[in-house]
Amino acid sequence: MSPKTAQIRLVSSHPEVYEPCDDSFALVDALLADRTNILDHCPRLCLEVGCGSGYVIASLALMLGQELPGVYYFATDINPHALRVTRETLDAHAVDAELMCMDIASGLEKRLAGMVDVMVVNPPYVPTPDYEVGREGIASAWAGGENGRSVIDRILPVADRLLSDKGWLYMVTLTTNDPSQICLLMRKKGYASRIVVQRSTEEESLHIIKFWRDSDIQLDTKEILTTNKSVPARVKDSLVSQFSQLSFWRGKLIRSQRRRVRTAAEDHSIQITAFMSCICLIKSQSSKKRIVIDISSGVGKDRVTENPEPIFLSGKSTWSPRH
C-alpha cells in the first residue's frame, strides 16, 4: 500500500492563508521520493517553517507515522490564521504537531538548536519589491523581495543552527532565486546538496533541494577558511551544471512535445485527405454498394447492400452512392 499523504478535501482553508499549490505538491512529492531514506534516517524531531494550510506537515506526519511513531513534529508561521488552519488540517487527519506563531523560527533557535533531524521549508520565493516582504496576511506566503531571496537568505543560517549533525533540509526554490548560488552558500557552511524533484509549470520552474552536512565538505571549508582560498572552480562547475542540465533536458522535452504535436497534426491532415479521396472515388462508382470508411484509419471496406441510404455510426461513417 502506498504511503499516505494529506487529503486535499480535508485540508482547511482561510482567505488569508496560502492554499496547497504546485510548490506544495512538489515538496510533498520530494519527501515521498526520499521517504525510504528518511525512515532509515530515523528522525526524532521534524520541523516545518511556514506551515500555511498544514498540508506539508500533515503529509510528513502521515507518511512517517506508522513506521516511526515516536517522532515529534513542530511547525511555525508568522500568520496566525495559518496556525489555526494548520491545526484544523492536522485534526482532520488525526495527527499532531506543536504549532508556534513566529518569524521563521526565532523563538526556537535556543530551544531546538542542533536537534532538528528533518526540516522542510516552502519559503516566500516570488520576486517582489522589498517593502512587500513580511506584510500581514497571505502576502507573507509569497513575497520574497529582490530575486525572491530576502526570506530564503534569512532561513539558511537559522537552518544551520537548528539542524542536528545528521539533519536534512528540504527547500523549495525557483529558478530566479539562483539555486546554484544557494547551494554554494550552504556548501561554505559544510553542506552537500542535490535536487530531489524538479518541476516545470507554465509559470515557473521549481527545484526541491535537499541539504545535509558532509564531513568531506566541512574539511574542505576549514581549509578554505584557513588559507583564504576561494571555492574551487570544479565545485562551482558541478553545482551550475546540475541546474543547467535540468534546463537542457527541459528544453529537449518541450521540443519533443512540439514535434509530437506537429506529427499528430500532419497525421490528422493525411487522414482527412485520404477520407476525402475515398468519397470522390465512391461518387464516381456506378455500383449500389455501401462503402464503410473508418475515419480513424482512412480505410474503406465494401459491403453489398440493397439499402442505398446513408448511415452514420459512432467513429465511422457509411455512405452509399445514388445515381
UniProtKB/TrEMBL annotation:
Chief location of this protein within or outside the cell: nucleus
Entry keywords, A to Z: Methyltransferase, Nucleus, S-adenosyl-L-methionine, Transferase
InterPro entries: DNA_methylase_N6_adenine_CS, Euk-Arch_PrmC-MTase, Small_mtfrase_dom
The UniProt record lists the keyword Methyltransferase: yes
GO biological process terms, semicolon-separated: methylation
Domain Methyltransferase small: 44-130
Pfam family, one: MTS
Location within or outside the cell: Nucleus
GO CC annotation terms, alphabetical: eRF1 methyltransferase complex; nucleus
TM spans (from-to): none
GO terms of molecular function: nucleic acid binding; protein methyltransferase activity; S-adenosylmethionine-dependent methyltransferase activity
Cited PANTHER family: METHYLTRANSFERASE N6AMT1
Family, as annotated: Belongs to the eukaryotic/archaeal PrmC-related family.
Protein name: Methyltransferase small domain-containing protein
Organism: Populus tomentosa (Chinese white poplar)
